[in-house]
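User: Fold this, then the next.

Assistant: Folding the first:
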Amino acid sequence: MLLSDGHHAYAHCAAKTGVTHAQCWAHTRRGFFEAQAAEPEAAAEALALIGELYRIEDDIRQAGLSGERKKDHRLAHAKPVVERFFARIDERFAAQGLLPSNPLTRALAYARDRRFGLEVFLADPDVPIDTNHLERALRVIPMGRRNWMFCWTELGARHVGILQSLIVTCRLHDINPYGYLVDVLQRVGQHPADRVHELTPRCWKALFAANPLRSPLHRQAP
């Protein structure tokens, strides 16, 4: 499963790997928010429908629903809203009253082109409605922009990005990033290259977290 914004690179990656591609409702909402000045009535209607989806998600959190109960709640309450949202998009396009450069046209096209990905969350209770939690976790990167000046090279910056992504993924899986990196950095040189995916945080947690390799510092008395 891949959850992302609407950038075409993610769609290409999903098609190449065969994973299901879920897309972010917050990024879809942004287009309609920016279209309010040009088409206030139509934009407000779309924003209201998306807002209803978020209210349903809040109800799910408040009720502590998960698994099949969460899925059933989404299908019963969110799916009709999603269908109404895309029906209105089709009606707007059928009216043929907007120029391609109009902000609302761009917002409508963005949503229509990504309908499949935007509907994935309805059938899979483990898929969030948006990528906001991921963006919050990665916010340390733009916040530390001045620090990244000292990466010196593009390769150094690339490695910093990989390391930050691993740390954030560890936190999403309730893994201590320090313990994970200590283990993997010792293990990677002897691990079969065709099974390197086993060292990604999700797989590592299932395979190695119960008995991780330790640093020599770990054995020193406090």
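Now the next one, as you asked:
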Amino acid sequence: MYNFDFETPKTIEDAVKAMGEEGAQALGGGQTLIPSLKQRLAMPGKLVSLAGIDAMKFVRKDGDTLVIGGGTTHGTVAREAKDSYPGLAALAAEIGDPAVRNRGTIGGSLANNDPSACYPAAALGSGATIVTNNREIAADDFFDGMFTTILEEGEIITEVRFPIPQASNYQKFEQPASRFALVGVFAAKYAEGVRVAVTGASEGGVFRWTDAEEALSSNWTAEAIKDLTVPADGMISDLHGSAAYRAHLVKVMTGRAVKAA
């Protein structure tokens, strides 16, 4: 590690003020940032911990919407969203291991936007709204490529609003060492149609499989996508799986998600 300042604000307002200082960076659960600091991949002059802001830790149902505070841990989502949004709760329960689930936060995961993370698929697949300290952002507009979002410098995710679907499920073909998704698919059925979001597969990060959405909106069964194919162009190819393999897995995991839902 190296020397840096560390601040622990208790309110969102104080956190925003601290984030306005030069060289400051927000710290959520630290599941990505701390290893990055150790390897000198990130070297902020100040860390602003969001862990002490109780106003960002909650799960509540608001009509047909599930609202989750940006500082809420994966473990809390897994427990407290089980009755209102079981598909999302099940996704949270399979993130990492118990240590990760007890420290990692939904806001930190979305802000980091790892191309193999689970929450981006849930947010995009649900048509969620990401709320920050100064605006509301539709999930369709929020993600902007690998490890990139449209968050501005000093902007903090305070809560995420998930429209609750009629049915949903997340299927993850995980890389066994990291438990990140080699390919993960979140499928959600709403009255106005189906949304299908894919993580772990594309070089561009999380994306919607619109051909599957159209087919499933007319016929909510796995049979609806049997004749569809996913192009391998632009898919990740590495030692864990080729681009063609990941493209094949997108269809397989989508079918499993629909069956499970």
